[in-house]
Amino acid sequence: MTGGFTAPQIDWAQLAPIIIVLGAGVVGVLVEAFVPRGVRRNVQLALTLLASAGALIAVAALWSGVRETGGTSVVGGSILLDGPALVIQGVVAALTLIALLVVADRTETGESAFAPAAAAVPGSDYEQLARRAGLEQTEVFPLIMFAAGGMMIFPAAGDLLTMFVALEVLSLPLYLLSGLARRRRLLSQEAAMKYFLLGAFASAFFLFGVGLLYGFAGSVRLDAIAEATTTVVGLDPLMLAGVAMLLVGLLFKIGAVPFHSWTPDVYQGAPTPITGFMAACTKAAAFGALLRVVYVVVPSIVWDLRPALWAVVILTMAVGTLVALVQTDVKRILAYSAIAHTGFILTGVVALTSSGITSVLFYVLAYGAASIGIFAIVTLVREVGPDGVVLGEATHLSQWTGLGRSNPWLAVTFSLFLLSFAGIPLTAGFIAKFTAFSAAVEGGATPLAIAGAVASAIAVFFYVRIIVLMFFTDAPRAGDRTGAEVTVVKSEGLTTVAIALTALLTVLLGVFPSPVLDLMAQAAKFIP
Amino acid sequence: MTNPYVPILVMMGVAGVMALGGVAASAIIGPKRYNRAKLEAYECGIQPTPHAVGGGRFPIKYYLVAMTFIIFDIEVVFLYPWAVNFTELAMFGLVAMMGFLFLITVPFVYEWRRGGFEWE
Amino acid sequence: MSLTNYLVLASLLFAIGASTVLLRRNAIVVFMGVELMLNATNLLLVTFARMHGDLSGQVIAFFVMVVAAAEVVIGLAIIVQIFRTRRSASVDDVNLLKS
């Protein structure tokens, strides 16, 4: 054996947010094994809420240190804890905390959004039995913790191996979670399978990109690859192919066109609380990682990639906006709106300025909060069967007519989130879009900013259409309805808290954005 | 024994005799009682395809065992490099691997407590 | 034999895996295509490790194997669940979400 082995110094304090969340996942599995069924749910809920709050506090405690030093590299450079990584970790922890409230809520019907026994065949006697026995798949809590842990490592990865492992750690639980819906289980399972097959396909591309870049640079560390892009000559095809395949994997995760085909199906099929969690947190984490790759590795070869990236941005905005216009399912509309927002956030990424980083960090927070809130509201609007039994969610657009009259508060909050998505002033969405587009102008990507403004203007149409439908269209009389009756179920309180928190965030970030923007501007620097 | 490869050859020979001898011995001296199940094509615990599609029960246990096997079998890949470099890695390696093994034990405990190893 | 041959082989295997994913209809076979892509990457990594005289490529291959195993477990669970419901593992039958 040549060359001695020196144990790496591990600064555990720097890893605290990650360890708290992943540790809660491991403890959660043990809870599943040893805690009796009756109290399991409450124990899991308390554990996961505490863990995400603890992670948030740990992020806050690390903040001043990172601001002074600009960031540290931990575990021999595998984890880079710098400003953007820490901010994304904080965003993920905070949004996970809020999403957990929606996940845990069983509403007045006493049934959670998840299948009572995920292994039971849909429609079988065993499933009925499990439902009547009030079984619950409390495994969702540790699964969410593992996914959140992966999301916190993803943007902080200092080498491509760590990034790949984090990508899988965040993806695998999400594949399972999206197949666990209580109602419309076939749709849910179908969504899980699509998400899984396409996701695995995309990670294989990511991995082959890692392999090519390793061949190019002789290392998978991001700083070494960045250095090699300026020093190594004669291997450009290898590098370009590697970076391109790496980007395919990342663009898949954020749902950019042409790698978006899973988004509407999975958003529609997955249990709605999970859709909210996915829309908010996966997007934040994946944009964190994308930022790091683009800002650390790509700068010296940006001219080679610029046309492709620009095309992706414009296509993403166009497809997301235009296809959303013709959708009739609320969850699908929100999914296409998510694709359009991916395009808007990407303008901040391709700006390649430090204000671009700030805009992305702010955008994922503003968009994430509004997504969790809006999907939380979707969980409450339900169909009613002929015998008065509350069924699944009423997601068809026509079922939302007149909701503004019967449930004004709910409809007003829903409209607030829609207006934020549309980018109307005094909401967080406006500030987010404004910073993203101005960063694009500053970074010499004015055409993208113009395209973004046009797309936003078109998007206003379908957001406002829903608002008009809720407030100014008469609800059809009972006899005219094609679908089932619609009701709004009362939450156990947890969802209400989540909706209130996200609505508050949406307004506060829209009216007083400067403290948060300043904070994120201070953080907008990657360490190589 | 001048050539260091001779013992390896001997071992391969012994292994070959054991493997072939076992098969040959059971073919020669073992009892032969055929029935329908034995003559059917073996297909991973599923009923042979023509029967399975229409209905019948689906033995899910096979997959449970297969998944358990995959997890624990593959985790061993980390044990081999550690074993080879045991002295080199010293205390750090020991602690790290103990942590790793503990984490592997957690899902094992979960599966055991939830009845994943009970056949009926 | 030149090491570049291995790189060509790895790329070919990756391409075969990718076409399997895109062309085959059985979910299990599609999934096998993904596994082939991952293993092609392993070959690539190990070959580059040899070319650079650097061990990290081999270490990454180990990690990839473990991650692939975890993926198999999750993937089989999802596919088996769908199969039990529908008695079919064809990706074409999975079309309820088509709008």
Outline the secondary-structure elements.
The complex is a heterotrimer of chains A (528), B (120) and C (99).
Chain A: H1 16-34, H2 37-69, E1 71-74, E2 79-82, H3 83-104, H4 125-132, H5 140-153, H6 160-177, H7 185-217, H8 222-231, H9 236-254, H10 262-269, H11 272-297, H12 302-325, H13 330-350, H14 354-380, E3 381-384, E4 390-393, H15 403-406, H16 408-422, H17 428-442, H18 446-472, E5 485-488, H19 494-511, H20 514-523
Antiparallel strand pairs in A: 1-2, 3-4, 3-5
Helix pairs in contact in A: 1-2, 1-5, 2-3, 3-5, 3-11, 3-14, 3-19, 5-6, 5-11, 6-7, 6-11, 7-8, 7-9, 7-10, 9-11, 10-11, 10-13, 11-13, 11-14, 12-13, 12-18, 13-14, 13-17, 13-18, 14-16, 14-17, 14-19, 14-20, 16-18, 16-19, 17-18, 17-19
Chain B: H1 5-29, H2 36-39, H3 49-52, H4 61-84, H5 86-113
Helix pairs in contact in B: 4-5
Chain C: H1 4-23, H2 27-52, H3 56-86
Helix pairs in contact in C: 1-2, 2-3
Count of discrete domains of chain B:
2
The count of DSSP E runs of length 2 or more, i.e. the number of strands of chain B, is 0
Largest sheet of chain B: none
Assigned CATH class of chain C: Mainly Alpha
CATH superfamily of the largest domain in chain B: NADH:ubiquinone/plastoquinone oxidoreductase, chain 3
Query: What low-confidence regions of chain C span 5 or more consecutive residues with pLDDT below 50?
Result: none
CATH topology of the largest domain in chain B, which one? Answer: Methane Monooxygenase Hydroxylase, Chain G, domain 1
How can the largest sheet of chain C be summarized? none
Mean of residue pLDDT values of chain C? 86
CATH topology of chain C: Helix Hairpins
Order of helices and strands of chain C: HHH
What brief labels describe this structure?
heterotrimer; A: 528 residues; mainly alpha; 3-stranded antiparallel β-sheet; two-stranded antiparallel sheet; 5 strands; globular; C: 99 residues; Helix Hairpins; 3 helices; 78% helix
3D structure, described in words:
Chain C: Keywords: Cell membrane, Membrane, NAD, Oxidoreductase, Quinone, Translocase, Transmembrane, Transmembrane helix, Transport. Chain C: It is an enzyme of class 7 (translocase). Chain C: NDH-1 is composed of 14 different subunits. Subunits NuoA, H, J, K, L, M, N constitute the membrane sector of the complex. Chain C: GO terms for molecular function: NADH dehydrogenase (quinone) (non-electrogenic) activity; quinone binding. The complex is a heterotrimer of chains A (528), B (120) and C (99). Chain A has 528 residues and is mainly alpha-helical. Chain A has 20 helices and five strands. The longest helix of chain A has 33 residues, at 37-69. Chain B is mostly helical and 120 residues long. Chain B folds into two domains: 1-32; 59-120, NADH:ubiquinone/plastoquinone oxidoreductase, chain 3 (Methane Monooxygenase Hydroxylase, Chain G, domain 1, Up-down Bundle), CATH 1.20.58. Chain B has helices at residues 5-29, 36-39, 49-52, 61-84, 86-113. In chain B, helix 4 packs antiparallel against helix 5 (86-113). The longest helix of chain B has 28 residues, at 86-113. Chain B is flat. Helices cover 78% and strands 0% of the residues of chain C. In chain C, helix 1 packs antiparallel against helix 2 (27-52) and helix 2 runs antiparallel to helix 3 (56-86). Chains A and C meet through helix 6, helix 7 and helix 10 of A and helix 1, helix 2 and helix 3 of C.
